[in-house]
Amino acid sequence: MQSAxxxxxxxxxxxxxxxxxxxxxxxxxxxxxxxxRNGRPAKSFVMLGLRGVGKTxxxxxxxxxxxxxxxxxxxxxxxxxxxxxxxxxxxxHRILLRLDRIKKAGSDMQAAFNSLRAFAAAFKVQLxxxxxxxxxxxxxxxxxxxxxxxxVAIGEAAKKRDTAVVLLIDEIQYIQKGxxxxxxxxLHKISQRQLPVLLFGGGLxxxxxxxxxxxxxxxxxxDYPSVGPLDAISAKQALATPALRDKVKFSDxxxxxxxAQTGGYPFxxxxxxxxxxxxxxxxxxxxxxxxxxxxxxxxxxxxxxxxVRLARLTDRxxxxxxxxxxxxxxxxxxxxxxxxxxxxVAQSAPIRDELxxxxxxxxxxxxxxxxxxxxxxxxxxxxxxxPKPKRTSRPAKA
Length: 398
Ligand SMILES: Nc1ncnc2c1ncn2[C@@H]1O[C@H](COP(=O)(O)OP(=O)(O)OP(=O)(O)O)[C@@H](O)[C@H]1O
Ligand SMILES: [Mg+2]
What we know:
This protein is of the alpha/beta class. It is built from 16 helices and eight strands. Helix 4 (108-122) packs antiparallel against helix 5 (143-160) and helix 5 (143-160) runs parallel beside helix 6.
């Protein structure tokens, strides 16, 4: 069918033609936003899920809902190479400028700008035309203290203006541990003071572990809903609904086949959907078309995202990833991976940590390691020969 009419939209954070299966999460976010707008306590949450499940799409959706409810929003995609202070300051500046437009008597706005100015000076952040000049109360340079002060100043200014602040932070797993602790402590203070500030985050599943020292606060402060593949009904809806808008149907067995091939992962559903559209000359899209599309989808992924991800790895990281792949799609025991590599657990641990740092792998629990990209294990088995069994000098310990 005509490519120009193809409704599917595979990509990073690209809005799907049908946002299927996420109503409960959207309702949870909407409720939190409405509560915070009504001056009620509301729980922030951080969505945890693998690559391509739709975390960014959801954050964009929440941002829209927050704006519709008259909140001031700021969206941040965390950069692993920059300290959090540098990344947050411009966003908080933007929020302050917007709050400043809502006129209200009082000196609280000045106090909030001063707080930001002090913060920017302490953490060496350039903020457009914001004059550093003489700061009445210099910041301490301790992120926990300074970020808390700044959040409180912003929260108070928002409360006085009868609005709320919604921060959206994507790729939250890249926030360095100390910075994440500071962010959690600042939000903890905000919630104690019942100020109208909410955080919605998205990240890879190892985040909950990362929260470290601030963990006990973090556990009470946030929910961590997991975002996974779509169930079969939602996955079929994600495929069938956009096509139906153009009066194109899928046969039932074609839908079943695609759901099985994609495992219901949203990114793959978009890729498979797009290829099915190209493979079928007219409605309906049948099982034969779906099978052809599936081959093309796999070949296209091999040549694009999978290949790019593999190319980012060093030789020893590739070998580690290949050994992981040998153990199947589910997270594997690091000791089994080590054994396949002929290494002890201690020898292989630094390689495992490098893969985690690169966002290629995650550890759902102690001793386990899995790929952050679904189906990457299949790709690795296609792309590289199996590791030859090796003997370890010492038996690998768990
Ligand atoms: N609920 C959904 N129904 C159908 N398609 C979806 C859904 N959610 C996301 N998608 C599609 O899946 C793809 C990936 O979405 P998105 O980039 O938001 O995932 P992500 O979890 O942020 O991935 P990453 O961890 O790589 O950043 C996009 O093409 C998007 O259109
Ligand atoms: Mg994303």
